[in-house]
Specification:
Pseudouridine synthase; 2 domains; eleven-stranded mixed sheet
């Protein structure tokens, strides 16, 4: 069954007997964090309506947009494999500080956790894990640009660090933006706008889109 509804502030884009696709709002954890104050999250809200629901992948607390969740262990296993094998087409839109020199490009920078400053991630050519992002400039405005991002890998904070290293941090990013870029937006301007994968039950490719809210 395909439908759009609002459930406890979570927009459900699609749901059937196997999986659910939702539009996660900004400032909501994907899964519970440590401490009583971090128990409200996407999976806990959705579990009220879908008791067997399982997280397949995560979006950052500040990032909004599309995420898919499984409704049984077999579907979870199949979807997780698609993410691990990089068979899922993910697209994001970000608004960044300044104007990139080129109209499009590829970023390959290995990333790892900055253990002394968690949850920050850093570029480490020795211990970092390979991370690849393709990007395209959609629009150049007075002092910022709109960027389409297509990550191949799915490292933590990958898009945020890659754009910072490109010299164009995402506006409103509390971890990686410099003070001027941070002040230019009230939230992290990063949105998961498209998600395409093979439906584990039907075997057909399915594609979902979410309008960018900024």
């Amino acid at each position: 069954m395909s439908y759009t509804e609002s459930f406890n502030e979570i927009e459900i884009i699609y749901a059937d007997n196997y999986l659910v696709v939702v539009n996660k709002p900004t400032l909501l954890l994907s899964v519970p964090g440590r401490g009583k104050d971090k128990q409200d999250c996407l999976i806990s809200r959705l579990s009220i309506k879908f008791p067997a629901i399982l997280t397949v992948h995560r979006l950052d607390w500040e990032t909004s947009g599309l995420t898919v969740l499984a409704l049984n262990k077999d579907i979870h296993r199949q979807l997780s494999r698609q993410f691990q094998e990089r068979e899922v087409n993910k697209q994001y839109v970000a608004v960044v500080y300044g104007h990139p020199e080129h109209d499009q490009g590829e970023i390959n920078l290995p990333l790892r956790c900055d253990w002394e400053n968690r949850p920050r991630q850093i570029v480490d050519p020795v211990q970092g894990k390979a991370s690849q992002t393709f990007w395209q400039c959609l629009e150049r405005l007075s002092d910022h640009s709109r960027i389409l991002l297509k990550p191949v890998t799915g490292r933590s904070h990958q898009l945020r660090v890659h754009l910072q290293q490109l010299g164009h941090p995402i506006l409103g990013d509390p971890l990686y933006a410099h003070p001027q870029a941070l002040k230019m937006a009230e939230r992290l301007l990063l949105h998961a706008s498209q998600l395409e994968f093979k439906h584990p039950a039907s075997g057909e490719m399915v594609k979902f889109r979410s309008p960018v809210p900024f």
